[in-house]
Design a protein that fits this description.
Order of helices and strands: EEHEE
Structural class: alpha+beta
Strand order of the largest sheet: 1-2
Number of strands: 4
Length: 105
């Protein structure tokens, strides 16, 4: 140990109280910095987790939207009607669709 770490009093070697205090302050400061680093890393990980979950949720919503759009069935009447500007919707001539609305209808 160096001279600055101990004081000499009547031939005895005793630790320098200022050195111990400085050492404790240094340890506390390093612990504070390490604690801040841990908190910083934790917050970054939390933000990344929220971002990834938001991205997955958004993409799944888009996929469900496209699934619902493709699942929509066209109107059944389109098979036997057409739009007429003066009258609106009219029946197509000579169209026979048996069981279109169910069995026997």
């Amino acid at each position: 140990m160096g001279v600055g770490e101990f004081t000499f009093c009547l031939g005895e070697r005793r630790p320098n109280p200022y050195h111990i205090t400085n050492h404790l302050v240094e340890l506390l400061y390093m612990g504070f910095i390490n604690g801040r680093k841990i908190i910083k890393v934790g917050l970054i990980n939390l933000l990344l987790l929220v971002a990834i979950l938001s991205l997955v949720e958004g993409l799944s919503s888009i996929l469900l939207l496209f699934y619902r759009i493709n699942k929509v069935q066209p109107i059944a009447e389109i098979r036997h009607t057409q739009y007429e500007q003066l009258l609106g919707w009219i029946n197509l001539p000579n169209v026979n669709l048996p069981n279109m609305y169910g069995e026997g209808m």
